[in-house]
Specification:
By secondary structure, the chain is an alpha+beta fold. The protein folds into 2 domains: about 5-165, Methyltransferase, Cobalt-precorrin-4 Transmethylase, Domain 2; about 170-315, Immunoglobulins (Immunoglobulin-like, Sandwich). About 15% of the residues lie in helices and about 45% in strands. The protein is built from 6 helices and 24 strands. The protein has helices spanning about 5-10, 35-50, 80-95, 155-165, 270-275, 300-305; strands at about 20-25, 55-60, 60-65, 70-75, 80, 95-100, 105-110, 115-125, 135, 140-145, 150, 170-180, 185-195, 205, 205-210, 215-220, 225-230, 235, 245, 250-265, 265-270, 280-285, 290-300, 310. Strands 12, 13, 16, 20, 21 and 24 form a 6-stranded mixed sheet that branches. Strands 1, 2, 5, 7 and 8 form a 5-stranded mixed sheet that branches. A hairpin with a 2-residue loop joins strand 17 (about 225-230) and strand 18 (about 235). The longest helix is centred in the first third of the chain and has 16 residues, at about 35-50.
Length: about 325
C-alpha cells in the first residue's frame, strides 16, 4: 500500500464507503483465522466482487458515527505475526467465494518501527463473473450498500445471473478494395463490418442495423443473414444457426461505395469530394442484450485504402 503505515494511520476519522471497508482481527495476537474472521473475509470479498470492487483494511477499527449515520475510523489495532496472517488470508481467499476470484491483491503493511506487526490491505476488483457466493461460515450472495455489506435480495441475484449470461458485442470495420467496374473508371470501396464477441457468453441471434448514406449495403456472403430495409436503415438479422462464440468475430455486412476515378497510367486519380468523408450509424446486439449504438467516422484517407493504386490531387482535397 502506497505510503505504508503512515498512510493507514492517516485515515483516522475517514468514513467507510461502498468501495472501502475496515475489519478488526478477532484476536490481534493470533495469526490464524477464527470463525468470525472467516465470515468477515467471505462476506466482504463476495460484496466487493458483486459491487464496484474495493479495498479491505485489516487491523482498523471503524464504528458508527451517530451524527453522520455512517461508520468512521476511530482506532488502529495492529496484528501480530503479520506475515503469517497475510499467508492465512491468501490461503482462505482461494476458497472464500464461488466462482473463485482471480485477482485479489493482498499486501502486508508493517507498522512504524515494527516488521512483525501491522495491517493488511486487500484489493478486490469488480468481477465480470458475478455473482459470487460467500462460501465461508455464512453461505450466500452479498453486495455493498453504501458503507455496509448486506445479503442480496432474490431479484438482485436473479438480475446478476441474467447479466452474466448476456453476451456483449462490439463493432469493428475494415476497408478494402472491391475492384473496378465501368471499364475501370469506377472504383469499388468495400467497408466490411464485423461483430466481435468479447464476453464469456455465446451471442445468439445477432443483429446489425446500418444507416450509411451513399453506400450500398449487402449481407456478407460467408455469414448469411436476413437483409431488410426500413427507410434509411438496413437491418441484418441472423437465425438460430448463427452463433458468435466468445473471443470470435463474424463479418456481418459489406457496404459498397462506387467512386469515379480517372486513369493516369497505371494509377487512378480519385476526387476527395466523391470519396468522403463518410459517417456510418450502426445499432447492434443479440438475444437478451441491450441495443448498442455506434457511429463510424471514415476520413478520405481511410477510404482511399479501398482504392487500389489510387491517389488524390491537391485540387481534389
Amino acid at each position: 500500500m502506497k505510503g505504508g503505515a503512515s498512510a493507514v494511520r492517516g485515515l483516522l476519522g475517514n468514513e467507510e464507503a461502498v468501495d472501502f471497508d475496515c475489519k478488526l482481527k478477532s484476536d490481534a495476537t493470533a495469526p490464524m483465522l477464527n470463525r468470525d474472521d472467516k465470515g468477515n473475509l467471505g462476506r466482504t470479498l463476495s460484496a466487493f466482487a458483486n459491487s464496484a470492487g474495493g479495498l479491505l483494511l485489516w487491523g482498523v477499527d471503524a464504528r458508527p458515527d451517530p451524527a453522520a449515520q455512517i461508520d468512521r475510523i476511530v482506532a488502529f489495532h495492529p496484528i501480530s505475526q503479520l506475515a503469517r496472517f497475510k499467508h492465512e488470508l491468501e490461503r482462505h481467499s482461494t476458497e472464500a467465494v464461488m466462482p473463485r476470484l482471480a485477482n485479489i491483491a493482498i499486501t502486508a503493511v508493517p507498522d512504524t518501527g515494527s516488521s512483525d506487526q501491522g495491517f493488511v490491505a486487500m484489493y478486490v476488483e469488480r468481477s465480470e463473473r458475478r455473482p459470487h457466493r460467500c462460501e465461508l461460515v455464512e453461505k450466500g450472495y452479498f453486495r455493498r450498500a453504501g458503507s455496509t455489506t448486506r445479503m442480496m435480495e432474490h431479484f438482485e441475484i436473479e438480475d446478476a445471473f441474467n447479466r452474466a449470461a448476456t453476451a456483449y458485442l462490439e463493432l469493428y470495420h475494415e476497408i478494402r478494395s472491391g475492384g473496378y467496374t465501368g471499364s475501370d473508371h469506377v472504383a469499388i470501396v468495400e467497408i466490411v463490418l464485423h461483430l466481435t464477441n468479447n464476453s464469456p457468453t455465446s451471442a445468439r441471434f445477432p443483429y446489425l442495423m446500418v444507416n450509411a448514406m451513399g453506400m450500398q449495403p449487402f449481407s456478407f456472403e460467408q455469414s448469411p443473414m436476413t437483409h431488410r430495409v426500413y427507410g434509411q436503415w438496413s437491418y441484418f438479422e441472423a437465425g438460430s444457426e448463427v452463433v458468435i462464440n466468445p473471443g470470435t468475430s463474424r463479418p456481418t455486412a459489406i457496404l459498397k461505395l462506387n467512386v469515379p476515378c480517372n486513369l493516369e497510367g497505371s494509377r487512378r486519380r480519385v476526387s476527395a469530394r466523391m470519396l468522403g468523408p463518410r459517417k456510418i450509424a450502426a445499432r447492434f446486439g443479440c438475444f437478451n442484450s441491450r441495443l448498442q449504438e455506434q457511429e463510424l467516422d471514415l476520413s478520405v484517407q481511410d477510404l482511399l485504402l479501398g482504392v487500389a493504386g489510387g491517389f488524390l490531387h491537391e485540387e481534389d482535397t
